[in-house]
Design goal:
4-stranded parallel beta sheet, 12 helices
């Protein structure tokens, strides 16, 4: 009797070797893939954000259309940089996919793979022969619905406007806008590895607590909290942020105009961010799970109807 092995890996974020690429487990993952390859009956699922595409391109937060972002991404360069910095691992993926299928479900850091056939085919060439790319995957036999989950989080999902334009996730717009300027300020006074810590803060609104501790630990003169809030205020005042807020939260976007007033705007920004953070934390810890259950019920009914 052959035992079927199913392996699910999520949020690897294998990057391009930049200061924010904190994937350091190449050898461990190589060993896992080699062990799997010795078996004759296994399935590998990469459940979103397997490779870090979001941080691998520059946008300055000024392009607010997914299709335009994709046109401006040098995907060949991104993949070559990833391979240069994780060459042994990429070779192992290719070897594994010579006889096994890799099911690649996209997340909010690699969703670009879904929107362009050339990018999709280039990625398949990059990772191996038997690659299937999915927005989600439903396993009929085991009745498993596999999805990254960013679709259930307002800040990390795509938005379709009435005009048919696709807006990137709010978290992506903010990351691109703020990091362009704030990262360089941080690196002036702090070691490179601090940038990795900053990038991994979730929820992002806990940034104040982290910045306060960093400033104390390193005894620096630069007020990092003020600097970040100043950048956040500029971001909320931006055309891209207002478009996203107006589309998703028509009433709430009015608050963004309060940020236009620089006198008191910073303090207001800090207080508003803290309030939002508190309300987010006040939610039940399983609020994403409850959203998933709601959506899954609809999907289940849909699958039964088309069966």
């Amino acid at each position: 009797m052959r035992i079927l092995t199913k392996l699910y890996l999520s949020d690897l974020h294998i990057g391009n070797g930049s200061k924010k690429d904190d994937f350091r487990y190449d050898n461990e993952l190589i060993k896992i893939l080699e062990d799997l390859n010795e078996e004759s009956n296994n399935e590998l699922y990469i459940v979103g954000d397997g490779f870090e595409i979001l941080q691998s391109y520059e946008n300055n937060g000024k392009i607010n259309d997914v299709n335009e972002i994709i046109k401006n991404i040098d995907f060949n360069y991104i993949l070559s940089e990833i391979e240069n910095n994780h060459s042994a691992l990429i070779k192992t993926f290719r070897k594994y996919s010579q006889k096994n299928t890799i099911h690649y479900i996209v997340g909010n850091h690699d969703y670009y793979l879904l929107f362009d056939e050339k990018i999709k085919n280039r990625f398949k060439d990059f990772l191996g022969k038997k690659i299937e790319i999915h927005p989600y995957y439903y396993d009929d036999k085991w009745e498993l619905f596999i999805i990254h989950g960013n679709q259930f989080d307002a800040l990390n999902r795509l938005t379709l406007t009435k005009s048919g334009k696709i807006l990137p996730p709010y978290g992506e717009i903010m990351e691109k806008f703020i990091s362009k300027y704030f990262d360089s300020e941080v690196l002036k006074v702090l070691p490179d590895e601090i940038l990795m810590d900053y990038d991994n803060i979730e929820p992002k609104m806990d940034i104040f607590l982290w910045l306060e501790e960093i400033r104390k630990k390193y005894s620096i003169g630069l007020d990092l909290e003020y600097k970040w809030i100043d950048m956040f205020v500029q971001f909320v005042r931006s055309k891209e942020s207002k478009e996203w807020l107006k589309t998703n939260y028509p009433l709430m976007h009015i608050f963004s105009y309060l940020f236009i007033n620089k006198i008191g705007g910073i303090k207001f920004g800090e207080n508003l961010v803290r309030v939002i953070s508190s309300l987010r934390g006040a939610k039940k810890t399983n609020y994403l799970m409850e959203n998933v259950k709601k959506y899954y019920t609809k999907i289940e009914l849909y699958l039964k109807n088309i069966a």
